[in-house]
Design a protein that fits this description.
- 18% of the residues lie in helices and 23% in strands.
- The longest helix has 10 residues.
Length: 241
């Protein structure tokens, strides 16, 4: 009688793994970055301040806020600028907000920013304040107080009378108008700057305007100046010039 094949006594393993599966390949070695300990550290920016000249009445608040966000390591210093000396003041700062025209501007870059409307400042008791808005014709017979720092230049409106006393600084002229002696014609920002309880103003619809501009010397167009120019023109930090 032929012998039957002997069956294994233990459990039968099915789907026996192939040798390659029993010994899977190793993961590839991770790439390493060589650290150079003697690499020079980047040099920090040289400490500096951006000096911005500002004519009376100019309102650079939103631009200053944008500067602080974009240039946190460069403080911005505001430098008051007198109208009569604004041309020489430009040479002493990085850039300046001035009123046009600027004398001898051949050596300057000048960017007109906005026009200010003229207003008539008068005593709160003046009949002129009964109107919502005035025209030059409404000023007939009024005494116009002259300004030593007049942003409009000499004003000669038909039917008006020049004050018999010398021209005054804007703040003093508005105080005088508040007493009822006469009227003052200034850009609206100056009327707001020197606001008084005993005086008020009305827009002079057909009067001259005053243009506020940004100016700086042509030979001093620095990276900081370019940044500020971009801010006043509404460019973002990622905008191309």
């Amino acid at each position: 009688m032929a012998k039957q094949p002997r069956r294994p006594s233990g459990p039968v393993r099915r789907n026996k793994a192939a040798p390659a599966e029993r010994f899977p390949p190793r993961n590839p070695p991770k790439k390493t970055v060589k650290v150079v300990f003697d690499a020079p550290a980047p040099e920090p920016d040289e400490p500096r301040t951006f000096r911005l000249g500002v004519i009376a009445g100019a309102t650079p608040g939103k631009w200053i806020d944008a500067w602080k966000e974009r240039m946190p390591r460069v403080p911005l210093e505001l430098v008051p600028v007198e109208l009569a000396g604004q041309r020489s003041a430009i040479d002493a700062v990085d850039a300046a907000l001035v009123r046009l025209p600027v004398a001898d501007d051949d050596g300057l870059h000048v960017i007109a920013l906005y026009d200010e409307r003229p207003v008539v400042v008068a005593s709160v008791d003046s009949h002129l304040l009964a109107a919502e808005e005035l025209t030059v014709a409404d000023l007939e017979g009024e005494v116009v107080i002259g300004l030593v720092d007049d942003p409009f230049g000499p004003l000669e409106f038909p039917g008006t009378v020049a004050a018999s006393f010398a021209a005054l600084p804007t703040e003093e002229a508005i105080a005088t108008a508040a007493s009822g002696v006469g009227i003052v014609i200034v850009p609206m920002s100056l009327a707001r700057l020197h606001h008084r309880k005993d005086a008020d103003y009305r827009v002079l619809a057909d009067g001259p305007t005053s243009t506020v501009a940004l100016a700086w010397p042509r030979e001093r167009t620095t990276a900081d100046v370019d940044t500020f120019v971009g801010i006043v023109r509404g460019r973002t930090a990622n905008s191309s010039r």
